[in-house]
Every structure is written in C-alpha cells, then in structure tokens.
UniProtKB/TrEMBL annotation:
Its EC number is 7.1.2.1. The chain crosses the membrane at residues 287-313, 325-347, 699-721, 784-806, 818-839, 851-868. The lineage of its organism: Eukaryota, Viridiplantae, Streptophyta, Embryophyta, Tracheophyta. GO terms for molecular function: ATP binding; ATP hydrolysis activity; metal ion binding; P-type proton-exporting transporter activity. This is Plasma membrane ATPase.
C-alpha cells in the first residue's frame, strides 16, 4: 500500500518532467508535428482533456515562493528608526549598569515590547493589504479566447494548457508560449528572458513562428496553439534561473540600508504569469528620508549637548546622565512612522478600490494628490462610447459607377457591417451591426476570405469576401482620411468629402468612411481593382450626464482637464463647448510647431500645451510628447489610456490611468486601473488620495514637533533644573501615544482644495514652532518623585493633544476628528492620569500626585493648548502669506499649488469658467465640508458597486445552471444593494415632486430597473 501511494505521489512530478521535454521540442518543429505531439487538433481540446493536462502541466502561472513569516516579522525591526531604539535597549543593560545600580531591565523589556507592537501591527497590516490586493487583482486577471469543445469561450489565462487553440489580437499580452497558425502576421514587442532586464525586442511574426509569454501584440489578429505554460515557458525558465541564484546585489543592499523605513513593505504580487504585477510599494521618499534624518540628527545634537554639559561642566553622576540620554533616545524617535504611513496607505488603497480605482503602485496615491493636469481621452471617458448612426444623415458619394448600381443607404450600412466583427465588443462595430435586422445578415450569402482587423496605424478594417456568384470583393470602413487615401479619385472628391466631415463635426458627429473594390483575380492577397469611396456615416457619441459637472469640480480642485482625442478638431471643440471645458483646442500638428493659427503663431509649443484645453487628431506619440512637455514645466501630469499604443504615454505620466475595458498592455503600463468608466471616478480618486496624503502629512508634522518637544524640553529639564526624568516613564508615554497615533490612519480629514505635495519648509517649521516647551516650576512640588509624576502627566497629555493641532489646517476645534481618534485619546489619557495619581513605583522613582495636582496639570495644559493654533497660523502665514484668508473662508489653509497655481488660475478665470458662470463667481466653493466630500466618495463607491453588479449579472446570465452557491449569493446581495439605491432615488424624486403638485404616479411609471 505504501509503495502504491508513493508511486501516485511521484506520478505528477514525473509527468511534469516529461512535460518539460515535450514542450521544449515544440519550438522548432513544423506546426503539423506540434499538433501530433501534443495530441490536439484545430478544433481545440475537450473539457476532459483540459482537466487531464492541468494535472500534468499545472496552472499557467509561476509558483510563488513564500518567505518565512517569522523572518518577515523580524524584518520590520530592521530599519534606521528601529536601530536607534535597539541601541537604546542595549544602553539600558550595557551602559546603565553603574553607579551602584543594576542594569535597567524594565526599560530594556519596555523597548522590546514597543518594537514588538510596531512589528506586529506592520506585519498584520501588510498581510491584510496583500490579501486584499490579491483579491482585487484576481478580478482583473488576464483572460483570453480559447477554442474548447468546438466553441470559443473566454477563460482565465491561468487555466490554459498545451494544446489549447487561442485567439490573440491587438493589445493582448500573450499568456503562454505558442505557435502561430493561419492568419495575418503579428507585430509584437517580443518578451523573452531578456524581459527580466527590461529589454524589448520588436518583431514581426507570421504563421508557423513562435511567440513567447509576456509579449505584447502591437498589430494584427491570429489564432495560435499553446505549446508551453507556467514554469515551462521561456519567461518561466528565466525566472526560475534568476530565483535560483538568490543573491542580493550591492545596489540593492545599499537601497535597503538607505531606504530602510519601508523596505519590508516592498511587495510584488505576480498574477497569472506576468499578466500584471501589483506593486504594493511603500517607499521612503526623499522627503521622508529627510524627516527621519532630521529627527535622528536632532536627538544626536541633544545627546551631544547633554554629554558636554552634564559630565565635564556639571560633574553629574554617571547613571543619572545615562538615564537622561535614554530619555532623548526613547522619547524622540518617531518609532511609529513606518507603521502609521504603511497602514494609512493600505487603508487608503482599499478605499480607492471601493470607489472603482485599483492602485497598482502605492506611491501613485502621493502623485495623484499632487496632480494638477489630467490629460483625458474623449471617447469612453468624457462620452459614453455608445455610438449611434442616424441613417437619414448618411452621405452617399454620387459616383456615376455606383449610381448605375443604385447604391442605397441600406446597402452602405450592409457594406459597413460586413467590414465589422460581429462578435467584437468594439463600439463602432456594435453600432453598425446593430442597425441590421439581425447580426447574421452581415455575413449572409457571402463567404469570408480574409478579415483585416483594426490597428492604430491604418485606422480601418476590411473584409475580403466571395458572394453567391463566386466573385470576390473587398469592403473597408474606418477613419475618413484613411478611407479617402484609398480612393483612386482622391483629388476629385477630397473637397466634397471634407465638407461633409466638417458639417458632421460642426454638429458634434464623428465620421466613418466606407470604400469598396473588386478583386477580379479571386485571390485574397491581390491588391484588387481601384478603390471607390462609397459614403460617410455620422456617428454620435453622447457626453456622459455628469461630465460637465465633473470637469467643473476638477477645475475647482485645481486640476486642469485637457481633452486628448483622435477625432477631428471641430468635434473636439464642439464636445468641449458642450461640457464647459472650453474650445481652446488645437490640431496635433501644432505640437510640432506646424499649422498654427495666426493668434498663436508666436506662442512657444510648451506654452501652447500648457494653456490649451485640448488637442485633436492625436496619435499615441503625440500623447507622449504632451506628457513630456508638461512634466518639463513641473506639472504633476495624469494620462488616461486604453490601447496598446497608449502604453508609452501611460508609463511616462506621473499617474498612468488605464480606463475601464482597457487592453492588457495598457493595464500593465498604468499605475491606476479603473473598474468603471467615466471621469467622475478619477476626480473622486483624486479627493480620496488628497485625504490619504493629508493624513500622512499631518502625522509627519506631529512627528517632527513631538521630537523637538521631547529633545528640547527634557534637555532643558536636565541641564537647567538638573531634573532627572525616569526613562521608563518616557517609554510609557511612547506606548500610550502608539495606540492614539495609529488611529490617525482612519481620521476624518478635509482634503486640500488644490494639488498638494510634500513641503519640507512647512513640515519642519511647523513642527519646530508648534512644540510647547513648558514644565512645572520646581517650586511647585519639592518632592522629585511626585514632580516626575506631574511632568509625566503634563507631557503625556499635551503630546497627544498636539495630534489635534497638527491634524487640522483650520482651528483644531472646528474640524471634527474621527470618533476612534477621540476615543483612543481619552483612553490613553485616562490611563496616564491613573498612573500619575496612584502609581507608587520604586523601580522608576515616581509617586502618585493625587487628584488635586492632576486637576491642576490638566487645567495648565488646557490653558496653554489654545495658543498652539495661533502659533500654527503664524508659522503657516510666514510660509504662504495666505493663511488668514483661507481660515476666514473655513477652507483648508496653507496649501500652495506648485507652478500653475491660484494666481494663474484666477488670471485665466474667463477661460476656465467658459462663460457658464458670472464673472464675479468664485472659483472655489465657500465650504467643502467633510460630509459633502464623504458623500462624493460614497457616490463613487455606489457607482462601482453598480458596475460590478452589471458585470456579475452578465457573467451569471451566461451560465447553464446555478452551480455555485457563493456566486449566487453575491448576485443576490448586489441586487439588493441596487434596489436600495433605486428606492433611495425614488425617495429623492418624491421629495421634489410632491411639493410642486405634480403627479407622482405618472412619474413612477417611468422607473426602469
């Protein structure tokens, strides 16, 4: 029995070893032999064969090597801030052993306990963030068209096996090593083992050639047979080779040392074989490095001063001097900084995902908070991308040859439908085919010989077909200029065609050209007879209902939205006029300094790009140039995209945003992936990012101020009053602060109304000036042990009260904090007060002060708390000069826009308001309360829920049976959520309709679910 079990256990391993040999042989042999060796056919595999091969070859993904959780936990104790605390722990048992006293074991254990708390929280939060991210990205897993059981289905790439027949097209990332079958050549960015070094090998591949996992399809559409999956692919083998070396280079070691705060948070989750890498990277930026260095240097300066004064000058005893040094080390280090910032980022990214924006690069949150220019595509983002064709407006070209044949508008529609893919989800194809009585009419009575798919270069599709008489014809549809270039009589008809295009564009309609030719020799490869321009079809893409409002909201938030479209200039201007974003748009040729209007002839290209409302006729290379020049002007630039050729611009932009239904290549190059369409989700994400950034910024100001307070305050106590404060009590203060500080990651904050960024001058100056150097006079209490308790309570209370000062940019009592923060503060101070009142700890030399003195300390802190707001205002006013105006307006104070700031926007108000508001209208709302901003975030979350509901129902509709209870419950849950939203909407309608005396029953009949 044991021998049989061992054979069964070894059988899959032996099968996989044989699989490596089999797949390796498929790269160079003829395709027919590939089918023979893999025991498959052009009809694809059956479900039973797929299950058998999954047992042999495994899933099509790389196995992740899990790091020891214990090592991962210890790693959170290995960063510069922890090093300082660890040095303090060593001091408590090594250097503090003198003066007739034993080692300071209680301080040693307290420091270790503090480090364990921080590491535990960071460990748990990173695991939670990783699990949440993996769950989110699983919904965006790479999928592809696979031929199984004789029909095409959409399957996850992880389920592919050798022998599968797949279809790959423009924008796809090839999910496995494969051999191409019959079809047009592909243009790909070939990814082989060199992909690990970032190299790209452009290549053209035809039938019979091999393509490799991870390659990006730049042009073409073709079928292929899978020959290798998972670790057996070229990329998988290279990854295993790199993993086997398991060495850390000198640069990486240096990086881990210098960027020590967050190097344990650099996590990479690879899903579905290099489809998309989710980088959860919480990096230590130069700003945070400077903050950490500032705190450490401040402590070192204080220590040096204490050593010089206490020993050579004051001749203090050895052990009390060491205790004073420990006070500075333990109390001055912002040990919670890595934990607070990582938790804030993780919670924020989860919040963004609920609103429909999945963050691939965590530091994109910081960039999005500072974004001041958004280059947005028109189609699908500003508009619905739900095209319709007005049959009455179709312009048939009156060519005498076609006039004899009697070309009608119905025939034009049929020609355009024949040049479409019936099964495509493309908006144009859907609109054209939808005009037929039934989609099958597009191929009725004809035999498809060859189909030319759309590509960004040619911007057209074409079908070569054989009709019922056995004659071959070719029809093409696409961009009017491209179709016009095909026509044999272009020079004769160009003027009339352009006139029709301009007429359509003036009404906001896109144009679609249709051309036709004979193929007399009956060969699909033949060039055919001359092309004839047949007609122009008008396409209407309605703007989204909330685009105009969202654009105005973006302007109010300091984000300049520029329309980047490939449509004609007139269409761009008309859309801009309808959306209220301006008509100050230019053709893409102006980016190269060509074809400028006389009014802008002398305007440099950089100024033109910065001041324009948008550009039309744009190609992908133009998008890259726009981003590059905006970044040269110090703008934080966001770019939306969905196609494979948008990848360079998305990669170049500070925030690359892949819109809903973007190609795999665009998603791979982006920093943010949207799960619902429209501009509103981007603006909601900007607000949420600013709130996240505000929390981090508030904490850094607090960290600097508390470091200065501890260092300077206790140094003065030790040197002027020669008061030796027990280091154990500072440790208690630090531990109590830990719990309160962590709640700031969920605090209620008011996002900045303008793009925000790290400002070292503001952080350092605010931190230095806000600290409150006050201590009780020595004469207030002659008992040093009771005085230590009083100082402990005073420092503990005012230190945590600083959180409320630094968290708000207005009066600290105006902006209501989160309940959790208030609760944590009250609990911590209750504990601190009880310790100060009742503690009688001989080991740390403190005695309780009673409730009377505790009340005096609380009253003392309350009196000196209010001046902190005034100090804050004076500090910020000195930095920005605008603090009081913003405080009076009860907006967020002290935020300065980088380059294209408030003054520039006020000067350009006539352009940005576009006549939709009176000249005296304010660019920013008087009040933007937390509730309003939170409502906007909730609306974005609801839109994301509806989008997921629609996608889930669509997938659910395709099922044959209810074979998954959890999936069924998910659908029902989402259905209930949608019905609740509709009921809420109905309530809003009734509150408006009834007071006006309208018939609510008639209106209710219009409800549609």
């Amino acid at each position: 029995m044991a021998g049989k079990q061992e054979r069964n256990r070894r059988r899959p391993q032996e099968g996989r070893r044989s699989a490596m040999v089999v797949t390796k042989l498929q790269e160079h042999i003829p395709v027919d032999e590939v089918f023979e060796n893999l025991q498959c056919s052009h009809r694809g595999l059956t479900s039973k064969q797929v299950q058998q091969r999954l047992q042999i070859f495994g899933l099509n993904k790389l196995e992740e090597k899990e790091e020891s959780k214990f090592r991962k936990f210890l790693g959170f104790m290995w960063n510069p801030l922890s090093w300082v605390m660890e040095e303090a722990a060593i001091m408590t048992i090594a250097l503090a052993n003198g003066g007739g006293k034993p080692p300071d074991w209680q301080d040693f254990l307290g420091i270790i306990f503090l480090l364990l708390i921080n590491s535990s929280i960071s460990f748990v939060e990173e695991n939670n963030a990783g699990n949440a991210a993996a769950a989110l990205m699983a919904g965006l897993a790479l999928k592809g068209k696979v031929l199984r059981d004789g029909r095409w289905t959409e399957e996850e790439a992880a389920a592919l096996v050798p022998g599968d027949i797949i279809s790959i097209k423009l924008g796809d990332i090839i999910p496995a090593d494969a051999r191409l079958l019959d079809g047009d050549p592909l243009k790909i960015d070939q990814a082989r083992p060199s992909a690990l070094t970032g190299e790209s090998l452009p290549a053209t591949k035809g039938p019979g050639d091999g393509v490799y996992s991870g390659s990006t399809v730049k042009q073409g559409e073709i079928k292929a047979v899978v020959i290798a999956t998972g670790v057996h692919t070229s990329f998988g083998k290279a990854a295993l080779l790199v993993d086997s070396t398991n060495q850390v280079g000198h640069f990486q070691q240096a990086s881990l040392t210098s960027l020590g705060y967050f190097h344990r948070s650099d996590t990479v989750i690879a899903l579905n074989h290099r489809y998309i890498d989710l980088f959860i990277i919480i990096r230590l930026t130069q700003v945070l490095t400077a903050i950490g260095n500032f705190c450490i240097c401040s402590i070192l300066v204080g220590i040096c001063i204490e050593i010089i004064v206490m020993y050579p000058i004051q001749n203090r005893a050895y052990r009390p001097g060491i205790d004073n040094l420990l006070v500075l080390l333990i109390g001055g280090i912002p040990i919670a900084m890595p934990t607070v910032l990582s938790v804030t980022m993780a919670i924020g990214s989860h919040r963004l995902s609920q609103q429909g924006a999945i963050i691939k690069r965590m530091t994109a949150i910081e960039d999005m908070a500072g974004m001041d220019v958004l280059c947005s595509a028109k189609t699908g983002t500003l508009t619905l991308n739900k095209l319709s064709v007005d049959k009455n407006l179709i312009e048939v070209h009156l060519n005498t040859q076609f006039l004899k044949k009697g070309v009608t508008k119905d025939q034009v529609i049929l020609m355009a439908a024949r040049a479409s893919r019936i099964e495509n989800q493309d908006a144009i194809d859907t609109a054209i085919v939808g005009m037929l009585g039934h989609p099958k009419e597009a191929r009725a009575g004809v035999q498809e010989a060859h189909f030319l798919p759309f590509n960004p270069t040619d911007k057209r599709t074409a079908l070569t077909y054989i009709d019922g008489d056995g004659k071959m014809y070719r029809v093409s549809k696409g961009a009017p200029e491209q179709i016009l270039n095909l026509a044999h009589n272009k020079s004769e008809i160009a003027q009339k065609v352009h006139a029709v295009i301009d007429k359509f564009a003036g009404r906001g309609l896109r144009s679609l050209g249709v051309a036709y030719q004979d193929v007399p020799d009956g060969r699909k490869e033949s060039r055919g007879s001359p092309w004839h321009f047949v007609a122009l079809l008008p396409l209407f893409d309605p703007p989204r209902h909330n685009s105009a409002e969202t654009i105005q909201r973006a302007l109010n938030l300091g984000v300049n939205v520029k329309m980047i479209t490939g449509d004609q200039l007139a269409i761009g201007k008309e859309t801009g006029r309808r959306l209220g974003m301006g008509t100050n748009m230019y053709p893409s040729s102006s980016l190269l300094g060509q074809n400028k209007d006389e009014s802008i002839a002398d305007l440099p290209v950089d100024d033109l790009i910065e001041k324009a409302d948008g550009f039309a006729g744009v190609f992908p290379e133009h998008k890259y140039e726009i981003v590059k020049r905006l970044q040269a002007r110090k703008h934080i630039c966001g770019m939306t995209g969905d196609g494979v050729n948008d990848a360079p611009a998305l990669k170049k932009a500070d925030i690359g945003i892949a819109v809903a239904d973007a190609t795999d290549a665009a998603r791979s190059a982006s920093d943010v992936i949207l799960t619902e369409p429209g501009l509103s989700v981007i603006i909601s994400a900007v607000l949420t990012s600013r709130a996240i950034f505000q929390r981090m910024k508030n904490y850094t100001i607090y960290a600097v101020s508390i470091t200065i307070r501890i260092v300077l305050g206790f140094m003065l106590l030790a040197l002027i009053w020669e008061f030796d404060f027990p280091p154990f009590m500072v440790l208690i203060i630090t531990i109590l602060n830990e719990g309160t500080i962590l709640t700031t990651s969920k605090d209620r904050v008011k996002p900045s109304p303008l793009p925000d960024s790290w400002k070292l001058a503001e952080i350092f100056t605010s931190g230095v000036r806000i600290f409150h150097v006050k201590s009780l006079e020595k004469t207030a209490q002659d008992d040093f042990q009771m005085l230590a308790s009083a100082v402990f309570l005073q420092v503990s209370t005012i230190s945590q009260a600083l959180i409320f000062v630094t968290r708000s940019r207005s009066w600290s009592f105006v902006e209501r904090p989160n309940f959790l923060l208030v609760f944590a503060f009250l609990v911590a101070q209750l504990i601190a007060t009880l310790i100060a009142v009742y503690a009688d700890w001989a080991f740390t030399s403190i005695n309780g002060i009673g409730w009377g003195w505790a009340g005096i300390v609380w009253l003392y802190n309350l009196v000196f708390y209010f001046p902190l707001d005034i100090i804050k205002f004076f500090t910020r006013y000195a930095l920005s000069g605008q603090a009081w105006d913003l405080v009076i307006e009860q907006r967020i104070a002290f935020t300065r826009k980088k380059q294209f700031g408030q003054q520039e926007r006020e000067l350009n108000a006539p352009r940005t308001l576009h006549g939709l508001q009176p000249a005296d209208a304010k660019l920013f709302p008087e009040k933007a309360g937390y509730n309003k901003l939170n409502q906007m975030a909730e609306e974005a979350k609801q839109r994301a829920d509806i989008a997921r509901y629609v996608a889930t129902c669509k997938e659910f509709h395709e099922w044959d049976a209810f074979h998954d209870l959890s999936y069924f419950l998910t659908v029902m849950n989402l259905t209930m959520c949608l019905l609740m939203m509709v009921h809420t909407l109905k309530g809003h309608v009734e509150t408006v309709v009834k007071p006006k005396g309208l018939d609510i029953d008639t209106i209710q009949q219009s409800y549609t679910v």
